[in-house]
Amino acid sequence: RGVPVATIASEEFESLGRAQLKMLGRANLPIIKVPHPIGGQPKAVVEKMADKIVEEVVEVLTARSAQKAEA
C-alpha cells in the first residue's frame, strides 16, 4: 500500500523510534539498528556500518512485495 521503507536508527535511538512508530500506528515495522554514534564518524566507518546492514535493508524493503506476490 505505498512506498517500501526501511527505518534505520542507532542503538541509542531505538526506543525513540519504537515510540514514534507506535504513535503513528506502525508499531510492527522493523527498525534496523546500527552502532551509536553515527554523526561525526569518518566516512569509512559509516560505510562499514552500511555494509553490515545492506542485506537486512534489502530484505525489509522487499519482504512486503514478496508477500503480495505470493497472495
Annotation keywords:
single chain; 71 residues; mainly alpha; two-stranded parallel sheet; 2 helices; 2 strands; 11% strand; flat
Briefly summarize what is shown.
The protein is 54% helix and 11% strand. The protein has 71 residues and is mainly α. The longest helix has 28 residues, at 43-70.
SSE arrangement:
Elements (H helix, E strand, L loop, with lengths): L6 E4 L3 H10 L7 E4 L8 H28 L1
Parallel strand pairs: 1-2
Protein model, in words:
- With 71 residues, the chain is mainly alpha-helical.
- Helices cover 54% and strands 11% of the residues.
- It contains two helices and two strands; from the N terminus they run βαβα.
- The chain has a two-stranded parallel sheet.
- The longest helix has 28 residues, at 43-70.
- The radius of gyration is 14 Å and the shape is flat.
- 0% of the residues are buried.
Succession of helices and strands = EHEH
Distance between the termini: 14 Å
Q: How is the largest sheet built, in terms of strand order?
A: 1-2
Quantity of strands, as a count = 2
